[in-house]
């Protein structure tokens, strides 16, 4: 099959896209983007299985399928190792459809029918992202619903629980970055922050910023995915990434003139090299987006309730 090759720049990231010449049908509302992790010897079979759900196209990172399928495929080759959040940002920028389903190469889609009706429903709701129910490689459910808390003597935590109902519910973060994203809302939110290099704190900052800006991430138990290998474990270590998360969200205050970052919040960075410059840039970012904040982090956590049922 013939292909076209093009080089792209996104910030400081350089990546090359190899596209099959199969034309897009423009009849399906979602694409699939698959992120790389480890080695999956059955990856081509997984891609073939995904093609049966009739996505508009499949975007692959740093992988060339060994089997030919009828769905248009774009291979995205990066020059350097990128965080999951950075890869999602690229996928959302490059996708041609209103919705993008983010998966990993070691995750299989369980749903019997990812129908056009599902995406119509997602569009009607207008949510930022719909996350799936996760299962381990033995088919056992994994706690997939998340909520934020301020525990005693700790800065902030996200806890996971098992959803006991068949209906949808509001959830705080995208577990393992997986889910069906509303592309326009994602790009409007600004995507994942590439300056936060910890993938755990990338997800937490994205979830808190989304909530503070009035967006919703929804857990849908009818959408199931299964790990084919070991379940990855988040690194929740407190680092500079935690500080960046806190200054972009937890430390932001509300006023009649919009959101602002108090000068006293500099104490988070006073020991860091170039801490003052970092703080000024963060403060300017909050000022630039001051009218996009609908509430502060404390109100988000205090008012955490289930989203209206689907």
TrEMBL record:
Top-rank lineage group of the source organism: Bacteria
InterPro entries reported in the protein's UniProt record: Nucleotide-diphossugar_trans
SUPFAM superfamilies named in the record: Nucleotide-diphospho-sugar transferases (SSF53448)
Gene3D superfamilies to which the protein is assigned, alphabetical: Spore Coat Polysaccharide Biosynthesis Protein SpsA, Chain A
The protein's name: Uncharacterized protein
Organism encoding this protein: Entomospira culicis
